[in-house]
Amino acid sequence: SNGNTDGSLTVAEIAKLAGDSVVEITTSAQSSGMFQQNTVTGAGSGVILTSDGYIVTNNHVIEGASKISIRLKDGTT
What we know:
Layout: H1 11-18, E1 22-32, E2 37-48, E3 55-56, H2 59-62, E4 67-71
Antiparallel strand pairs: 1-2, 1-4, 2-3
């Protein structure tokens, strides 16, 4: 029991329950300049919504990415 009489959860309890659903997202994309081509990397986070792997994140995290990698809390990529 968390001591809340209305049955609500504390922030710490919610974080503990949802923590395994939070993922790290890393991206890479190719950027071409006048004389060279560079690899641009990015990072962000997301949350697993469904047991079959749907993840929600902000569009700017993955926009323009040619490769997207997901790392779970246990380190699995």
